[in-house]
Amino acid sequence: MSRAAQTQRILHRTDCYLLPFLSLLFLLNSLDRSNIGNAETAGFTRHAGLQPGDLNDSVALFFMLFVIFQPVGAALGKRVGAARWVGGVMIGWAFLTALTAFVRTRAQLLTLRMMIGTLEAGFYPTTVFYLGLFYTRYEFAQRLGMFFGQYAVAGAFGGLVSWAVFKIFPSGEEEAMRNGNNGSGLYAYQVMFLLEGFLTLVVAITTFWWLPLGPRSAWWLQQSDREWAEKRVLLDRAGADQDGEHRRGLAGGEEEEGEELLRDGEEEEVDVIVAKSTVGGEGALTRRDVEEAFRDWKIWWILALNIASSVPGAAFSVFLPLVIKGMGHPPLTANLLTIPPFLCGAFTLWGITYLSDRSHQRIKYILIGLAINLVGLLLVVLLPADALASRYLSLCILLAGSYIASPLTVAWLSGNISEPGKRAVILGINGWGNLAGVVSSKLYAPEYGPSYHFSFVVTLALVMGAWVGYWGFRRALIFVS
């Protein structure tokens, strides 16, 4: 069998057995992160004896801990192994999500969300690093898009689950009595937290036997395929074609082609990369990896842009139900109406990451995504408050561009760093882009509702700044090359 046929078989089986499962994990991760916004439409803070601003404070503290522990979580995830790390932290936050149903004080809410943020901190960089063990650089963005798209799908799924739960267990804004259908005496939001915590727990337990250490122990591959599954990725990371020929250097601004940008010109030979890998493809984390990651000026430029461009995605993953409710829709309808905008975000992301892989371009498509985002934001800001249908359509456009920059930035970083240890730390640092969640929690505070006009204007300015910054970064890459 030819190498090409073997590669296609490996990709097909990995796409069938690994990618959907990791996507499910990220969907549940995103759902447990954002469900507090859906809960608030059912009167969460009011029934729990809290103030509306407590919810925003809990979101801010969640993201603060989430950001602080990103590099630590990424390093621990790499050292412990993705399967064991991901399964363990998921079990932890599943129980904490369920406990949120019984919050009765501000301190309890803040403590639980901080603990969830700490546990979830290493999940995304660990799973992205793990996914990168199975795919070469120009197979990666499309798969990462499918994976990251679950962030948007989780919003749609959360809206559907919330609508169904709130329909069956009426409570919250409609001022219905405690549900008497099954004698549980639970509010609708409590049922939602318990249900989502249970789903996360069941899937988390499955990870321990579903996820292998890496390609060399992938149970869905034949023994003869496992060695090549790992080697072809290592060869690609080393900047060589699979026949051993080095890729050409940077030319004409094709920043994703050629030598590794974050190594400042230092080349790594293929045999060194292969030799440093351990069983499963996960190399040891060294002090040199950490030092080089923190010294690289490019990651700090990208991090600033990542924070600004991620504000819409972070904000609307939590607050979209409240924004739509602020347009005058009742809670049930508001949760149902979150589904189309989130699906717009997912499908647009999947289409653009596909084109990105096909064209071997990253920053170009980041700029396209941010441009879509800007169109939606401009429409929301400029349209009159009573133009409900037009403003809702604007939200669909806005969400369509909200999830593109982050995964393509990760794909750019991952595709340009051959050293596994440094790549893991860089992805952890890039995870500090979740500071956007802290910004959004204050930006979409109750005092700016129900129209959130000021919030949209500031978001517009941040995204516009991100577009200019990514354009400037691309020009800088051309200049230094």
TrEMBL record:
Biased composition (Acidic residues): 253-262
Signal peptide bounds: 1-30
UniProt-annotated location(s): Membrane
SUPFAM superfamilies, sorted: MFS general substrate transporter
Membrane topology category: Multi-pass membrane protein
Transmembrane stretches, start-end: 58-76, 83-103, 115-135, 147-166, 186-211, 299-320, 332-353, 365-385, 391-413, 451-473
Example GO molecular function: transmembrane transporter activity
Name of one Pfam family that matches: MFS_1
Positions of the UniProt region annotated as Disordered: 243-262
UniProt xrefs under InterPro entries: MFS (IPR011701), MFS_trans_sf (IPR036259)
Keywords, in A-Z order: Membrane, Signal, Transmembrane, Transmembrane helix, Transport
A single GO cellular-component term on record: membrane
Keyword rRNA-binding carried by entry: no
UniProt keyword rRNA-binding, yes or no: no
PANTHER family xref list: MAJOR FACILITATOR SUPERFAMILY (MFS) PROFILE DOMAIN-CONTAINING PROTEIN, PERMEASE-RELATED
Stated name of the protein: MFS general substrate transporter
UniProt organism field: Morchella conica CCBAS932
